Amino acid sequence: MQRREVLRILAGSAASAALAPLSPSDRLVLGASLHAETRAGAALDQAQLALVSDLAETILPRTETPGALDAGVPAFIDRMLAWWDTAEARDRFIRGLGDIATRLAGTVPRDQVLAALDSATSPGPSSAEEAWARLKSMTVYGYFTSKLVQEEVLHTVILPGRFVGCLPAGG
């Protein structure tokens, strides 16, 4: 099994708790609508968006399939934060993102910082660990609901063939 297959399987369970009440089809519709919108109503400033872009591409880099940047995941995450989150949840994520930036700017190598964030068992509110877990969840969700990935990676038939109701059954 390849990494993208594992991520595809985990995508549904990795979505944030706020999406739990939505059915899979509602999640797909929400994801598609968020991908289609413009930058208006952004939650992240340019430096934060650059960090999200860098981290999203680290989570899902371009290989033989498109990466997170190809699928427009950073803009998707920005819109999720601006339109879906409460102000409190958005502020917690942004504070945690700032903590991630501080840690990455330190002397500890990047891979060790990310490994430490990954190994957190009970991240506190507004922590780098909480923001990292949420970023991974939103990255996977944004990636697999993008039109690019739906068509080119998953080969989803968005509009299936036509229905011809006047044909005899079995013929």
Description of the structure:
- By secondary structure, the protein is mainly alpha-helical.
- It has 8 helices and no strands.
- The longest helix is centred in the middle third of the chain and has 19 residues, at 87-105.
- The relative contact order is 0.16.
Chart the SSEs and their pairings.
Blueprint: H1 3-14, H2 24-36, H3 46-59, H4 73-84, H5 87-105, H6 110-118, H7 128-144, H8 147-152
Helix pairs in contact: 1-7, 3-4, 3-7, 4-7, 5-7, 6-7
Structure in a nutshell:
The chain has helices spanning 3-14, 24-36, 46-59, 73-84, 87-105, 110-118, 128-144, 147-152. It is mostly helical and 171 residues long. The longest helix is centred in the middle third of the chain and has 19 residues, at 87-105.
Distance between the termini: 39 Å
Taking pLDDT < 50 over at least 5 consecutive residues as the criterion, the unreliable ranges are none
| Helix run count | 8
Beta-strand share of residues: under 5%
Major sheet details: none
Question: What Rg, in angstroms, do the CA atoms define?
Answer: 18 Å
Q: What's the helix-strand series?
A: HHHHHHHH
Task: Please describe the structure with a list of short key phrases separated by commas or semicolons.
mainly alpha; 171 residues; single chain; elongated; 8 helices
